[in-house]
Amino acid sequence: MTFGEKLTRLRKREGLSQEALAERLGVSRQAVSRWEQNTALPDAAKLLPCARLFSVSVEWLLDNARGWEDQTQTAEPAQRTETPAAHGNRPWYIAGGIVTGAGALGLVAMGIMSAVFPAVVSEAPVGVEWVRVYDGLTGFLKLHNVEWLFALWAAVALAGLWLLAQPSVRKENQKNSRFSPWYAAGVAVALYGVGQTAWYVQQGRMQDLPLLALFLAAAVWCTVRQFLRLGGEPDAAHHWRERVLTLLYTAAQAVILLLTAEAGFGLVALVCHIGVYFLCAGVMTGRRPGRRKS
Question: Which of 6, 46, 270, 282 is found 20 to 30 A from 195 (Cα to Cα)?
C-alpha cells in the first residue's frame, strides 16, 4: 500500500478535504494532491506532523510493504508521542490564566472604584475657548493620577493573553507566515503618534499638524506594504486567514488610536498598542518578532 493511498484513506477517514489537510500542515492543496498521487513525498518537517495528525507512525506511512491492517498496531504509540507536548503546554495555560486573571481583576477593581468614588475633572487649556470635562473612569484616573496603574494592569492582562497563545503559535503550520512583524510595529508606532498628536492639536497646538500628517502617512504606508506582502497564492487557506487577521489587527490599533485622540491616555495607549502588537505578531508568526527562521 503506497504512501499516497494511505494518506488518501486516512484523510477521508477523518472527514478532511485536501484544502483542510493542507491548512493543518501549512502547505498548499496542490502539495497534498501530489502526495496522494504518489508524484511527490512530504519533506521531513511535514512527515512527523502528518503522522501525529492521524495517530500513526512515520515508519508505517513510508513502508509500502505494510497495509492498512498494520496501522492499528502503530496508532497507540503515535498517540503517546503527543502526550508530552500536551503536558508541555499545561504550564503555559496555567501561567497565562493566572496572569490574565490578575490583570483583568485589577482593571475591574479600578472600574468599580471609579463607580464608587465618581470624579469630574475639567481642563481649560490656555489660548482656547473650550473646556474639556472628564467623568467616569477617565475622570477617576486623571483626578487621582493613577493612569500608570491602569496601564500596568492592562499590560499584565495582555501578557497573560500572550502566554495563553503560546501553545498554538508554536505549531509548525504557523511558521510559514508572510506576516511582517516590522511593518506591524510600524503601524503600531505610527498610529500611536497619530493619536498623541491629534490630542495635542485638540489642545490648541496647531503647530503639530505637520507631525500628525507625517505619522498618518507612515501608518498608511506600513499598512499598504503589509497587505502587499500578504498577496499571492489566493488558494492557500492560511494566507487568506493571515489577511483577515492582519485586517483585524489594523482595526484594533485604529480603535486604540481613536481612544487616545479622544481621552489623551498617553501611557495607557502605549501599553495597549504594544500589547496588541506582540499578541498579533506571536499568533501570526509563532516566534519572536524579527527572529529568523532556522
Answer: 282
**CB of 61 within 8 A of CB of 3?**
yes
Give the phi and the psi of residue 194 in degrees, each rounded to 5: -60, -45
Q: Which residue has the cell 506594504?
A: 225
Alpha-carbon span 240 to 250, nearest angstrom: 16
Taking only the tens place, the pLDDT of each residue in 217-239 is 988 898 888 888 777 554 455 56
* Predicted local distance difference test score (pLDDT) of residue 105: 92
Q: Please state, in angstroms and rounded to a whole number, the distance separating the CA atoms of residues 61 and 63.
A: 6
Q: Which of 179, 178, 196 is nearest to 260 (CA)?
A: 196
pTM for this structure? Answer: 0.45
Strand partners, 123: 132
C-alpha distances (whole Å) from 264 to each of 113, 152, 199 are: 21, 17, 6
Q: Is 95 exposed, middle or buried (0-12, 13-18, 19+ CB in 10 A)?
A: middle
CA distance 143 to 114: 10
Using the predicted structure, report yes or no on whether residue 45 has a pLDDT greater than 60: yes
Q: pLDDT digits over 187-214, tens only?
A: 888 888 888 788 777 767 777 788 888 8
Contacts (Cβ under 8 Å, ≥6 apart) of 111: 137
- Which segments of the chain are extended strands (E)? 121-123, 132-134
Amino acid at 266: G
Q: 256: which 3 cell numbers? A: 486604540
Cell, residue 97 = 490564566
Residue 195 exposure: Cα atoms within 13 Å on the Cβ side: 26
